[in-house]
Amino acid sequence: MISNPPYYQPGSGRINKEDECAIARHELTADPDAVLTAAAFAVKNRGAFCCIYPAERLATVLAVMTSKRLVPKRLQPVYSYPEDAQARLVLIEAVKNGGEGLRRFLPPLYIYQHKDGPYSPELERMYED
After folding, report:
1. DSSP of 20-67, one letter per residue?
2. Strand-pair category, 104-105 with 89-96
3. Domains (ranges, CATH) in the chain?
4. How far is CA 86 from CA 9, 89, 93, 109, in A?
5. Which of the listed residues 20, 26, 37, 111 has the most CB atoms within 10 Å of its CB?
6. What pLDDT is stored for residue 16 in this prediction?
7. pLDDT tens for each residue of 70-114
8. What pLDDT, in 10s, does the model give residues 14-49?
9. CB–CB of 76/104 below 8 Å?
């Protein structure tokens, strides 16, 4: 199961006037607890769940995942470009009832080759498939 949940807490940033866009970007109808409760219900035992969240929300998301028996197994930080000072997003793969232990920290994924530059080779490969 894969999820691209809403990232932003209510009251942060501008809320889009179109309901669908606002709901997709802000936690107006689903917060991490609701998303991860649904994922834990939908995923079979030992099944995988993948999602992406802002890096600044990682502690919250990992705590909620653990409380729902979704055990983080792989993490990959996502940066805008190599010179960027901090990761913007984190890709997370969790396994329902997956025991203890994170398997891997994956190398950073860069969206662009440099600021205002073209997509990185890794991202280009993703679009090829």
Report:
1. HHHHHHBTTS--HHHHHHHHHHHSPTT-EEEEEEEGGGHHHHHHHHHH
2. unpaired
3. 2-77+86-103 (3.40.50.150)
4. 20, 9, 20, 12
5. 26
6. 65
7. 999 999 999 999 999 999 999 999 999 999 888 899 999 999 999
8. 776 676 665 556 565 667 888 899 999 999 999 999
9. no
